[in-house]
Amino acid sequence: MTHANASLTPTGRKRLAEAIVRHGWTPRRAAERFQVAPGTARKWAARYRAGLPMTDISSRPHSSPGRTPTRLERRIIGLRVTRRWGPHRIGYHLGVPRSTVGRVLARYRMPRLADTDQATGLPVRKSKPVRYEHAAPGDLIHMDVKKLGRIPDGGGHRALGRRAGRRNSGTRGRGYTFVHHALDDHSRLAYSEIHDDERKETVVEFWRRAVAFFAEAGIEIKAVLTDNGSGYRSKLFAAELAAGANRGATPIKHRRTRPYRPQTNGKVERFNRTLAREWAYAQTYRSDAARAATYPDWLHTYNHHRPHTGIDGLTPAQRVQNLTRNYT
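Structure (tokenized):
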């Protein structure tokens, strides 16, 4: 493209070339007349003799054999639109470098996930969040419960539509299942179980198994962060924390989030979003038991194989050196 300070416009280039080709001027004389370099004068004269236009020609190559195939580009864009995955997740799923996915998304002008509305997928303007992270595994464990609607036998409205789904569910629905989480702040390593309730007894029994899981990975828990649910505020849970991770060791500090501020427990809330998008609603299940049966495999993939952008593309297992089957 001709820039604002160019010595020659396409018309001026033609006059320069005609002076050399048709009127017999030397390239040096024409260059002095039109105030350009002799090499420039010879270039436009040669192009005029060849019958080429006097406009700028794109420097883009005629073919790009190394460019990402169109079919792969469509798969990348499809995953971004339907699954709302980031470059790391898409790259891992398709087996292509994250940089390749990033270039494809930029080529198609796809907005960053952080700049889109979660409900509609439309671009929005958001301030950049301040990210924090504790220095070592066990410094803080995030704990929460994700409530999911039960899937009736035969499938719900996602599989059969609203009318048929209601018939399977009954007039009062099927109730909920409760997915309990314990997530390490530093490594994002997660321990999780599916239960029928969130009572204090269930919370305490889950916590004991979570402590054992982290202990097996060589993680000593120093503090836990929860919301203000009744199970977490119970005396039974407080007594369990007071006993320490090894029952008789240093008490575990209990921190609570501010009311109506789920951002305080942001890492486990982000885990809930990932869980919902990549497992709970990622495919159509025909029963609640069918969905629950796939959860252990998904959780293993999350801990051992799924790259996490919040920890520089590593997996949670890669940040915990003593984790069993770290490289499986």
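The beta strands are 141-149, 176-184, 190-195, 223-226, 253-256. The first strand starts at residue 141 and ends at 149.
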